[in-house]
User: Fold Nitrous oxide reductase from Sediminicola luteus.
Amino acid sequence: MKRLSKLVLLSALGALTLIGCNPAGKKSDKGGALSSSAAEKVYVAPGEHDEFYAFVSGGFSGQLAVYGLPSGRLFKVIPVFSQDAEKAWGYNEETKPMLNTSYGFVPWDDSHHPDISQTAGELDGRYVFINANNTPRIAKIDLTTFETTEIIEVPNSAGNHSSSFVTENTEYVVAGTRFSVPVPQRDMPISEYKGNFKGALSFISVNPEDGGMDVKFQLLMPGFNYDLSHPGRGKSHGWFFFTTYNTEEASTLLEVNASQNDKDFIAAVNWKKIEEYVNNGGGKMMPANYAHNVYDEHTHTATSTMKKEVLVVDPSEVPGAVYLLPTPKSPHGCDVDPSGEYIVGNGKLSANLTVHSFTKMLDAIENKKFDGDAYGIPILNFDSVLAGTVEQPGLGPLHTEFDGKGNAYTTFFISSEVVKWKLGTWDVVDRKSTYYSVGHLMIPGGNSQKPFGKYVLAMNKITKDRYLPTGPEVTQSAQLYDITGEKMELLLDFPTVGEPHYAAGIPADIIKPNSKKIFKLEENKHKYAALSEADTKVVRNGKEVHVYMTMIRSHFSPDNIEGIKVGDKVYFHITNLEQDYDVPHGVSMIGANTSELLIMPGQTESFVWEPKQPGVWPFYCTDFCSALHQEMQGYVRVSPANSNIELSWSLGE
Ligand code: K7E
Ligand code: CUA
Assistant:
């Protein structure tokens, strides 16, 4: 009977989803005078710069897109987990190792949650981190070059979803598993899941000097699903909070079986305590196999190293380090306010929003206000940790952000709206529709002690009638709201790349001054660089041929090569000799099974070409670099495998 009523509830929620997305039910947001003032607020005049950068996750595109706010203009798609022919990411020899994993070359992923590095609880703009859900990885993007410079695989994980959030001095970037799995992986009946699978919460240290990442330890938690997480800050710095669902530990038909418990948990992890335990020799090393890929800015080349062990910690061995806060109904988002006092659990199937108090949590721990335990982890008494509830704010809460002025903003997927409410009084003060079915939302700095509460960006799952139709597949989209007043004001819709989940925003002034313009030639340590035309050459080593080539407006050196044979493996290593801002050159070879290369000033990149037929084959520059761009070309003569043509190369002869 109980099971049946759950099913009825779930299908009712499903029906509401449809209502929420029904264009017929929408209110018009096209008010004449109002829309002209909205237009002014997002207008960034030609040649002017936006006030904020927004890094918006690409979801199933695997990438990270960079937009300006308030204009919504797209500046760059940073390739992270997926091959990108535009930038040769994962195609050229230099970046292929970045996509190496313990499963081999994995050129795609599903990226959800970018988070910007912090110092003393404020955004510092050095790095942005983002998670790969599918083949668990964490990537780091350097915000001087806007390039992915490090990717670490996360062992013992599957569905790396409660990731990648940073602590307030970027001590750790934290990655929690969504799926619990056998640890170590082994062949066993799925029906024996309960009590046997584990959920790994990984604390990846970030070296304060060079940003280098390393899995410091993994906490092996009970076999729940770990959905989202956020660090404590201010008074709660040193703690990390994770929402869980499927505390039922079901392995089948989760839509019903993981919706049975009235409350799931937010797991509170005292990482400082575990760090101390580990630093004193606690935990145990277990065999593992995971890739650590690092891109070197001076060699312009990535290396991939397989790591062979990982330190794991059983929470029951560190008393006082982990507690469970009961939280109604399969919470999704887990969000901590800028003061660090309030921990918001967004129960997807709950009528109310649950807010826990950090102070009350410490008190409940101190006074042992426990309601039993789960696998030895104390469960805190719900009423003893509850700060308050926001009563019936909407349907299907997902995520909450904060403006730093005492207000919180929560997205409701089913009722398709952003709801503004007050911390402490728990009163709803405003609600605005989204078009439609909003997932995450983002306030620049919203995940820090210092939010810049000027705009909120809502990211929507469904757009239907909002844009010109483009066949069955229509764009996903973001919506920008002004939140400077008591009431929110919708300013702008703009399409996004892939499916945006979370985003991270930051004032442009923090990043702009550090943005690199060129790579210095004298710092180029690429193994096959030619730093001047005098250094160019072609070297044969058996069937392998290495071409040390340069490019500068508007020629390649050399541009005529002879003596290549069918069956050769020809490596083109091309250095862009330009030392001016915004003068990349491209290069492409007919029939090469790879992408073009787009090479920045001072950089060297390589591609492989295996000529299949004798002939004279052209190559050319793919980036319109000067008035004589169309003259920037060359020829390679390919002879039969048994020919005696000498290897030779030239320019202008
Ligand atoms: Cu809510 Cu992956 Cu953060 Cu999407 S998750 S919405
Ligand atoms: Cu170089 Cu076009």
